[in-house]
Amino acid sequence: MFNRASVALGLAFLYGPIVLLVIYSFNASRLVTVWAGFSTRWYGALAQDQQMLDAIWVTLRVGLISASLATVLGTLAAVGLVRSGRFPGRTLFGGMIYAPLVLPEVILGLSLLLLYVALDLPRGFWTLTLSHATVTLCYATVVIQARLASFDISLEEAARDLGCTPLGAFLAVTLPGIAPAVAAAWMLAFTLSLDDLVIASFTSGPGATTLPMRLYSQVRLGVNPEINAVSTLLIALVAVGVTAAWLIQRPRRTGP
Amino acid sequence: MRRTWAVILAPYLWLVLFFAVPMALIAKLSLSHTVLAMPPYAPRLDLSHGLDGISAFLGGLSGATYARLTQDRLYISAYLSSLGFAGVATAILLLIGYPIAYGMSRFGAGARQALLLGVILPFWTSFLIRIYAWIAILKPAGLLNQGLALLHLPPLQLLNTDAAVIIGLVYAYLPFMILPLYAVLEKQDESLIEAAQDLGCTPLTAFWRVTFPLSLPGLAAGALLCFIPMVGEFVIPDLLGGSKTLMLGRTIWTEFFADRDWPAASAVALALLATLIVPIALFQRQQAKVLS
Questions:
Q1: pTM of this prediction?
Q2: Predicted ipTM beyond 0.95
C-alpha cells in the first residue's frame, strides 16, 4: 500500500507540471494561467512565427549532425574501452569520457568558447555542432559500452577464424549485435542536443539561434501561451520517439 | 589487440582538443587580467616570438583574479549557497526518491518496465520546458495559488524565492536519483529478506539491516549524480530564483555575458571544478566498478 502510494505520488509529481503545461497550451486566453476555453490559436500563431521556425530548423540540423558525429566517435571509444584492455593514457581517456557527463554545463560551455576564441574560429552553426558532438559523444560512449561489455566476443572471434578481417568481423557480427544500443545512443545524443541551452548560448553565434535559446529569451520576458504550444509539440515528439524506441528494444531485454 | 588501439585514436584526439585543451584554457585565462580589447583579456600567448613570447606570456600571468575573488563577499556567498542549495536538494531527493524507487522495485516484472519508462520519459523531455512549467504553477496568480484559493488557504509567494529553486532542483533531478536507486533495489535477492524474517526480524528491521545497507551503492551514485551538476546549475536559479539567489553557475554566466569579465568567469569556473573534482572522481570510480 505504502509502495503503491509513493510510486503514484512520485509519478504525479513528475507528470503534473507537464500535463498542466499541455492543457494550458490549448487555452484561448493570452493569460497562461486563466482558463478561457479550448482553442488551438497558439498553434496557429506558432506556424506564423518565422523566428521560431528558423530556430527549430537550426536546432534540428545541429542535432542531426552532432548526434551522428557523436555516435560514430562514441562507438569507436566504446570499442576501444571494452576491447583494448590497458593502454597508455587509459585513465585520462576514461576521465575525459565521464567528466562531461556530470560537469556543470556552464564550465563546458565556457571552456569550449575559449577554445574557439583561441583558434580564432567565428562562433556559429559549426562551433555549436562540434560542441554538442563533444558532450554527447560521452553519453553515447557510456550507452554503447554497457551493451558491448555484455556482447559475446567469441562470436567475433569465430568470424575471424572463418576468414573475416577484424573490421569485417566487427561490421558483420558485432555491429548488428550492438545496433539497439547504437540507435539508443544516437537518440540520446540527438535529444540532448535538442534540449541544450547553456552550451549553445556560449558556443553559438549570430544566425544560429537554437530553439532553447529562443525559448529562453522569451521565458525571461514571462510566460506566454505560444511557448506552451511549442513545448507541447516537443513533448509529444519525444514521448512518441522514446516510447517507440522502448517498444522496439523491449523483447531483447526480456532475454536471459 | 594492437589494432583496437587505433580505433580509440579518433575519439581520444577529439576529446583532447575539445575537452582537455579547453579546460587548460580556462586555467590559463583565470590567471590573466581583463583589457579593453578583443579578446578581452591579456596576456596572449604569441608563439611567433619563440621562447621570448612564451616567457613574456608566463611573466604576464598572475593570481590577481583569485585574490580579488576571495576578497569579494559576493563570490564567497555564491560559492557557499551553491553548495547549500545542492546539499539540501540532494537530501530531499534521497528522502523522496528512495520510497519511489523502493516502491517501483516491488511491482511485477511487466509493471516495473512500464514504471521505468515512466520515470525515464521526463528525463528525455526538455529541461527548459520542465522548468518553464513551474513558472506558471508558482507565480503569484499561478495555478498553485488558484488551487489554494479554492481550498480557502492563504496564497504562497514562491516564484523568485530560494524555495522555488529547491523545488525546481528536486523536480528536475528526481529521475537521476530514482534510476540508480532502482537499479540496485531491483536486483536485490528477495530471499535475503525472507531469511532475515525467518530469523526473527520484523519487516522494518529486515529493511534497515538488509535492504538498506545493500542499496548504499545506488544511494551514493544517485546522490553524486544529482549533487555534482546541481552545484553549477544555471537555468533553475535563473528562472525560478530571485535576483538575490546566488549560485555559481549563474555567477559565471553573469561575469561572462553581462560584465564581460572573462578572467573572473574562468576563475569561478575553476573554483567550482576544484570543488567538484573529488565527487567526480568518486562517481567515476563507482561507474567503472559497475561496468566491470
A1: 0.85
A2: no
N residues, chain A: 256
Name the grid cell of A104.
Answer: 556543470
Written as nine digits, the cell of A190 is: 540527438
Search chain B and give the residue with CA nearest A242.
Answer: B121
A contacts of B282 (beta carbons < 8 Å)? none
Of A20, A97, A219, the CB nearest to B137: A20
Distance CA A8, CA B228 (A): 28
Of A99, A197, A234, the CB nearest to B280: A99
> What is the spatial distance between Cα A74 and Cα A6, in angstroms, rounded to a whole number?
37
Q: Which of B235, B272, B291 sits opposite A149 (nearest CB)?
A: B291
What's the confidence (pLDDT) of residue A254?
42
Q: Say if residues A153 and A173 touch (Cβ distance below 8 Å).
A: no
CB–CB contact A20 B249 (8 Å): no
The answer to whether residues A207 and A118 touch, using CB atoms and an 8 Å cutoff, is no
Q: Which helix (H) or strand (E) holds A194?
A: helix A175-195
Cell numbers of A40, please? 488551438
Which residues in A lie closer than 8 A to residue B276 (C-beta atoms)?
Answer: 102-104
C-alpha cell at A59: 536546432
Write down all domains in chain A, each with its CATH number in brackets. Answer: 48-222 (1.10.3720.10)
pLDDT tens, residue by residue, B107-162: 888 888 889 888 988 888 888 889 988 988 888 878 888 888 888 888 888 888 88
- The CA distances from residue A202 to A93, A114, A115, A116, in Å, are 25, 9, 11, 10
B74-291 has CATH 3.30.930.10 classification: no
Domain boundaries, chain B: 74-291
CA B199 to chain A, closest CA, distance in angstroms equals 24
d(CA B92, CA B88): 6
pLDDT digits (tens, 9 = 90+) for B54-92: 776 776 777 777 878 778 788 888 889 999 999 999 999
Percent of all residues in chain B with a pLDDT value above 90, rounded to a whole number: 23
Tell me the C-alpha distance between A192 and A143, whole Å: 14
- Reference B241, options B119, B117, B97, B135; nearest CA is B135
Gyration radius of chain A over CA positions:
22
Of residues B143, B126, B211, the one with CA closest to residue A211: B126
Q: How high is the pLDDT of residue A128? A: 96
